[in-house]
Amino acid sequence: MASVEKALSLLKNLPRVNLGNLKPLPGRRGKKPDRRGQHGGKNRGFGDGANNLPRMGFEGGNVPFYRRMPVEPYYKDHAFRKQYPPLSLLQLQRLVDLGRIDTTEPIDLTTLCNTKVITVNPHLKHYGINLTDEGADIFEAKVNIEIQWTNEIAIAAIEKSGGTITTKFYDLQCIDAMVNPLLFFNRGIPIPRCKLPSMDVIEYYSDAKNRGYLADPELIRQARIELAQKMGYNLADPSQDPLYEMLTKRKDPRQIWFGLSPGWVVNLKHKTVLKPNDPELIEYYQS
Amino acid sequence: MRLPLFNSTSLIRLAFPKQCLQYGKPRLWFSTSTQLRQHAEGTDETSITDIEPQQTEQRNLPLVTSRKLQFPSKVAPKQAWLETLEQTEDDIIGIVDLHPEIFGLFPRKCVAYFRIDVLWWNVFWQREYRRVDYRQVKTRAEMPGGGRKPWQQKRTGRARHGSIRSPLWVKGGKSFGPRGPKSHFFMLPDNLRVLGLRTGLTVKYAQNNLHIVENLHLPSDDPTYLMNLVESKDWGLSVLFVDDTDYIDKNMAIATNEVKQYNVMPVYVWKPMKLFRIDESFLRLSSAAGLNVYSMLKHETLVLTLDALEKIEERLLQHVCNVDYRDKHFSLKAVGPRV
């Protein structure tokens, strides 16, 4: 009876059996509660209990799964998303070749909109232009371009041909001003102070890989070299370039046009520029 | 620490190396009771350890190596050390056989085998059969007042009521409440009671909480001696001593009377006994009960004397193994003569 020995040896290592740890066998013991009163008995009024079950597929009042509309969340909050109308490198090269863009000056959103080829509408949440990489292999213009969204290949195409690129954020008020400056100046309101990027894009504009305008210039210089090594082209030394001044020209983060500062009012009729003298205004508009 | 038990007598040398070496040389292992009594009374000036072995009294060891079992089983008998309470060192004096039908039940969920729930049933029965429910609450008939209709049947806008002592009312009578002294007496079936005792003894043995002693004689009536003895043997906090008689050694009675968690109990009593003196060296027990499952499980350790062991096995095996006894309900005498 080795099994007895084995079982009893198991018992030896268990806690001591005492008055506190005894249990009866599982199962119901004792009396059932008295079911008294008018409806207390065994018989129910209407059929037996099974007839009162809800129908198959009933979800307790929810719309059941076979009648539920499928949810497609791809366009959720589309009215609030930032839109960037595309501009390909092929289009940019064509504009340059046709003389619609002067490459001896820095290119920004106003330059592109003045070509009347690209439409940017701030009422459609257009936060600027997305420079796409289509035509990257034939792009050869040497430009200093400021763009709102781009990708790595487009950056490489610009820099390979000796140009420079910056991504800069503009809020919708600034976009409205830059799309049609003439209309804006006729309103007679001061040039807006460009806001900082919102939280969803501040990472993008702080990254040197995207040539963000908030990134460290030293990191941008390293990123240019890294990208050249990655894509396999020789990066020309910009300091030796005769267009060095133009190529390294950058706006202030609060500035939206070269030569004009936020807070100024441009009077086209009298061809004057009004600048604020109030120290509070100066403090507000300073970078 | 206890050594593992061996079936072979030759292995006893492992347990008694010192004794076996001195086997040829007679040696005293027990002091005479007179010496110890003198020592306890203070008339003897020597301490227990100073008592020199005397050649007059000697016991060959081991005293007990086997025992004749009634209704011998095919299963090998269980074994336990035989110990003595008269000294704290070298207290093992032999090995006794235990009947496997009593001390080695097979643990499984089946009728007439080791079951924890049988212990539960026995404890439940012992608690329940003596319980009397004295709770009693008054019905609406026994409450004072309530004969008058509190308000008219109709046109009051209130619910219709006929008595302020209706069970629906606050401070009304209670319907189907507990009524009077109610006995919860019932008898657990004989087989379950016997099985409970067998299971309890098996559990105690399997968990190393069962010890066999030669007798309950103590050299001193000082409770500290007994407490030190229990502590040196690692018997735990509470000990139940069981003898086959309802009178015990005077020292044992006095010592256990002082310590609440040490109790003495006979195997079986026919009627309640009061503690009174019957002899110079023996006292009657005041216990009203014999060995039972509740007391077994209440104490950590169960200590049986050799005589108690004989008695327990005899009584339980009579139920388990004796066909005549088992079938007495179906005998001619029980059924009655045929007409």
From TrEMBL, chain A:
Pfam family, one: Ribosomal_L27A
InterPro entries registered for this protein in UniProt: Ribosomal_uL15 (IPR030878), Ribosomal_uL15/eL18 (IPR021131), Ribosomal_uL15/eL18_sf (IPR036227), Ribosomal_uL15_bac-type (IPR005749)
Similarity-based family: Belongs to the universal ribosomal protein uL15 family.
Gene Ontology process terms (BP): translation
Positions of the UniProt region annotated as Disordered: 19-53
Domain Large ribosomal subunit protein uL15/eL18: 86-166
Alphabetical keyword list: Ribonucleoprotein, Ribosomal protein
The protein's name in its UniProt record: Large ribosomal subunit protein uL15m
TrEMBL record, chain B:
Superkingdom, taxonomy of origin: Eukaryota
Family matches, as InterPro entries: Ribosomal_uL4, Ribosomal_uL4-like, Ribosomal_uL4_dom_sf
One Pfam family named in its UniProt record: Ribosomal_L4
Localization: Mitochondrion
A Gene Ontology cellular-component term: ribosome
GO biological process: translation
Gene Ontology terms, MF aspect: structural constituent of ribosome
Keywords attached to this entry: Mitochondrion, Ribonucleoprotein, Ribosomal protein
Main location per the UniProt record: mitochondrion
Family: Belongs to the universal ribosomal protein uL4 family.
Name of the protein this chain belongs to: Large ribosomal subunit protein uL4m
